[in-house]
Amino acid sequence: MSWQSELDEQERRRQLAAELGGADKVARHKAAGKLTVRERVAGLVDAGSFEEIGSTAGFPEYDSEGRLVAFTPANVVCGRARLDGRDVFVTGDDFTVRGGANDGGLREKFAFAETWARRWRIPLVRLVDGTGGGGSVKHLETLGRTYLPDVPQMTEILDALSEIPIVSLGLGSVAGMGAARVCGSHYALMVRGTSQLFAAGPPVVARTGQVLDKEELGGTHVHVKNGTIDDEVQSEAEAFARARRFLSYLPASVYELPQRTPCDDPAERTAEQLISVIPRNARAVYKMRPIIEAVFDAGSWFEIGKAWGRSLITGLARLDGWPVAVLAGDPYHYGGAWTADACRKAIRMIDLAQTFHLPVVHLVDIPGFLIGKDAEASGVMRYGTQALAAVRQSTVPWCAVMVRKAFGMAGLAQRNGSPAFLRYAWPSAQWGSLPIAGGVEAAYRAVIEAAPDPAAKRAEIEARLEALQSPLRTAEAFGVEEIIDPRRTRSYLCRFAALAAPLRTTGRPSFGYRP
Amino acid sequence: MAASIVSPVAGQLLRCLVLAGDEVSPDTEVAIVEAMKMHIPVSADRSGRVARWLVAEQSLVSEGQPLLVLEG
Q1: Do residue A48 and residue A187 come from a single domain?
Q2: How far apart are CA A200 and CA A192, in angstroms?
Q3: DSSP of A369-423, one letter per residue?
């Protein structure tokens, strides 16, 4: 006697499940330029590493003899896998069954898929291609009643963000719960052209009088600029590659520390161009990204959120193999001034660093918060104060390199509240409560107006004050700890990373109140 | 096909660096906009020929405002 017949029956169900929503629906899905959920899983994980869980969960149909005649798989495909050799949990929506809507799944399987990774303290990758939790209003007639909106596991799903890394890839039109599952992550991507995201899709929005197609309403061009997602990619394959790369900088959970990887870029490597990269003309801009590339481990720079809050560059990188979070000003956008969006972007990166124990390197160039009518309308001081709170509440080791400007309240974002704090200044640095140009008018108005030649007087005062602005004078008063040769910045940063490594501590983050 | 080049920031259009009829490539700096006391170059980001300017030097411009029209 053997149990082979049952195993054969099980295998038959697996084969039926592999057909997803049927040949027609799969063909239509692929014609839209999208991969099937099983192709997506295969494209994401290490070859042969996917161990599916719930492979035969679904909706069977039996004949009167109790024989299986048809089978529709639940539209959640999930399981354990390995990414670059590390354990992860993957859950993918199957758009070919009920458009990926949750009513085409099994409630228990959906809950399992969303909560399992956290219980085992490994990262979760979501391949999102579905609509809301409710599915369709047709469901009302089946049920014969309505219900208060709830997702029973929602508390646990959101709390998982404080314990494990979550990456969400938006791979189709996602709305409602699908949209929330994309946003409810540490790293959210969408594929240009084949992915859209909205609170509600075009037919619902049309009822408000706004007639838009799905791309106009919620294409990547909308959401990369408002911070709803972090980045757009050109293909699903690129999304998988970026998900793997993002996770490579993070520990499996907050109960572990980010791992050092081998590094063949010498820690003592100098970068000759950095001695002259900052223009002497204070109004002239320079490119920050080549500076980032020059000081971190070769090839390790991974920018996040390039298309929004652009006066602040954020991302992950390595120093002598140690993963770190990076903030850096971009003078090409408002001279590096922190806009409301830049503040929100700073908060997102600092929270990521604090949650997963990544030391922070800040290449500082902040002329202030953005000023003017538009800036006030955007609520820059509200978000700015929130960002300052996020910075100062963070306790991970922090190293500031004062590249150029640090002025006003925004200039306080140079450093966090950690006792493990290092600060180096380039000779091109300048700082103060107020930039001279604006401040002279206010402080010396009477003197300037009384002068026979007010313009000449203003110039004379400005020149006098400029001379006092050298960072060397601040260093003499120990107002900045050390001025360094920019060419040797990398070696200082690598020593910081090594010094910071043993200070990193595991555990859940706990943020204070943010104004 | 005509396309416009927009200002990446709100500020004052300080200088127009190209004239109608000039050919530009993605790296060409077409204008300088002053914002937060910095002179911020605006790149063409695409190739084409300048059809016309939409904004005069010294005008205030908003973020995303079209500065000039490119054709080709």
Answers
A1: yes
A2: 19
A3: B--SHHHHHTTHHHHHHHHHHHHHH--S-EEEEEEEEEETGGGGGG--S-SSEEE
Neighbours of A222 (CB within 10 A): 17
Give the pLDDT confidence score for residue A142 in this predicted structure: 82
Pairing type for strands A173-175 and A187-191 reads unpaired
Chain B stretch 26-55, residues whose beta carbon is closer than 8 A to a beta carbon of chain A: 34-41
Reported residue count of chain B is 72
Among residues A319, A88, A321, the alpha carbon closest in space to that of A187 is found at A88
Domain presence at residue A514: no
Quick: pLDDT tens for A24-42: 999 999 999 999 999 999 9
Closest CA to A227 of A345, A319, A119, A339: A345
How distant, in Å, are the alpha carbons of A43, A340, A387 from that of A346? 32, 10, 7
Task: Show residues of chain A in contact with B37, CB under 8 Å.
Answer: 282-283, 335, 367, 435, 437-438
Are residues B39 and A332, on separate chains, in Cβ contact within 8 Å?
no
Last-in-domain residue among A233, A248, A263: A248
Q: Would A207 be classed as within a structural domain?
A: yes
Return the amino acid letter for A60.
Answer: P
Contacts of B33 (CB under 8 A, 6+ apart): B7, B8, B9, B11, B12, B13, B14, B39, B40, B42, B61
A440 with A424, same domain: the answer is: no
Which tens digit of pLDDT belongs to each residue from A55-75? 999 999 999 999 999 999 999
Range of the domain at A41: 4-248
pLDDT, tens digit (0-9, with 9 covering 90-100), for A344-362: 999 999 999 999 999 999 9
| Largest interatomic CA distance in chain B | 35
Establish if A317 belongs to a structural domain: yes
B3-71 fold? OB fold (Dihydrolipoamide Acetyltransferase, E2P) (2.40.50)
Q: Is residue A368 part of a domain?
A: yes
Which run of H or of E encompasses A346?
helix A340-355
- In chain B, where the domains are located: 3-71
Are B39 and A284 an interchain contact pair (Cβ–Cβ within 8 Å)?
yes
Strand partners, A360: A325, A398
Strands B48-53 and B66-71: antiparallel
Residue from A332, A378, A462, A466 to probe the interface with B (highest B Cβ count within 10 Å): A332
Q: DSSP letters of A280-299?
A: SSTTB---HHHHHHHHSPTT
Helix (H, G, I), strand (E, B) or coil at A488: helix
Residue carrying the six token digits 């890839």: A169
A190 plus A337 within the same structural domain:
no
